[in-house]
Amino acid sequence: MPKILLIEDEAPIRATLTRFLRMEGLEVITAENGMQGVALARAELPDLILCDLLMPELDGYQVLSSLRDDARTVRIPFLLLTASAAPEDHQAGIRRGAAAFLTKPFHLDDVRAAIARFIPLADSP
Question: How many beta carbons lie within 10 A of that of residue 48, not counting itself?
């Protein structure tokens, strides 16, 4: 079963995404801030990371940079979640090594499609 690390400081979003991802047949581990997320990523080595951009402790860019500087986590696909639709924010994330962006509010179909690019889902071929 593929494992996803969800790093999101907003409890309602974290709960909704956790339920959805589990329904998609994924193992989900969660962190409520960037510091916890970096520690969990290094300990658990998930198959994919979904990370909010604006959070306490470390923001999504700092989490991404920390994980890209670690040989154990450098290749884990990293998807940023953000309320910003500004192209410069998306470009900054891609330059730092993010694989994709999901803009809040997002549809769960968009989350499914983004994840399916990197790991198999229960109903994917």
Answer: 21
- Listed residue (72, 76, 120) closest to 97, CA to CA: 76
The span from the CA of 60 to the CA of 71, in Å, is 19
Q: How is 10-24 classified by DSSP, letter by letter?
A: -HHHHHHHHHHHHHT
**What's the 3-state SS for 36-55?**
HHHHHHHHHCCCEEEEECCC
Distance CA 40, CA 123 (A): 27
Residue 101: strand pairing partners: 80
Domain ranges of the chain: 3-116
Each residue of 60-119: pLDDT tens digit? 999 999 999 999 999 999 999 988 767 777 777 778 888 888 888 889 999 999 999 999
- Shortest CA distance to 60 belongs to which of 80, 39, 83? 80
What is the CATH code for 3-116?
3.40.50.2300
